[in-house]
Design goal:
Elements: E1 3-6, E2 9-12, E3 17-20, H1 27-36, E4 40-45, H2 51-62, E5 66-72, E6 90-94, E7 106-110, E8 114-117, H3 124-128, E9 133-137, H4 140-156, H5 171-183
């Protein structure tokens, strides 16, 4: 029988679990799933600036969990002058299928056995202001489908924050400008 992380506890598989921000904490179950991960996390996120989730990801990396983050090119993420956010994770950036498109996913895979998806952005605004949802699923076929999608997106992404992948050749001219802007946050 498969097992799932529900509210921070390893329990027998109970099928899908859904959280709605209108009356539930959506961020905490995600942080708890991160904290229970022992081997790998792959997350495709539009952006990330949630202090709780960033701290959970850093703790995971410190435990030796391999963390791969795929973000929308130019996406915001929080880090302080004393902390090099980028050094904790393998990070790549992507745009959408067209130059003007977005990498608008919000999903993560934990230890190749549990995934979370939904509208929930991993941001302060999602926690405080928005109506959001997150669906946790441990069905092996569903998790494998998300793993395939993550692998496809990762293969089409760039290690440059402003490069959109194969569709935007002009991005290389913008890199110097982005790097100069990015340094002010370090």
């Amino acid at each position: 029988m498969a097992a799932a992380w529900i509210c921070g506890l390893l329990t027998p598989a109970l099928g899908a679990r859904v959280y709605f921000s209108s009356d539930q904490d959506v961020e905490r179950p995600i942080a708890e799933a991160i904290d229970r991960t022992t081997n790998s996390i792959q997350a495709a996120l539009y952006e990330i600036n949630s202090p709780l989730l960033i701290r959970a990801l850093k703790r995971a990396a410190a435990r030796g969990v391999h963390v791969e983050l795929l973000l929308q090119r130019g996406a915001s993420f929080q880090h302080s002058a004393n902390d090099d956010f980028l050094s904790h994770f393998d990070m790549r950036w992507s745009g959408g299928r067209l130059p003007s498109g977005l990498m608008h996913h919000k999903f993560a895979i934990f230890d190749q056995s549990l995934m979370v998806t939904g509208s929930y952005n991993w941001t302060r605004g999602a926690r405080r202001a928005n109506y959001e949802n997150a669906l946790f699923e441990d069905d092996a076929d569903v998790v494998k489908a998300y793993m395939r999608q993550f692998g496809l997106l990762w293969s089409r992404s760039s290690d440059e924050p402003t490069h959109s992948g194969p569709f935007n050749a002009a991005a290389s001219r913008k890199r110097r400008h982005f790097r100069s802007r990015f340094k002010i946050y370090r």
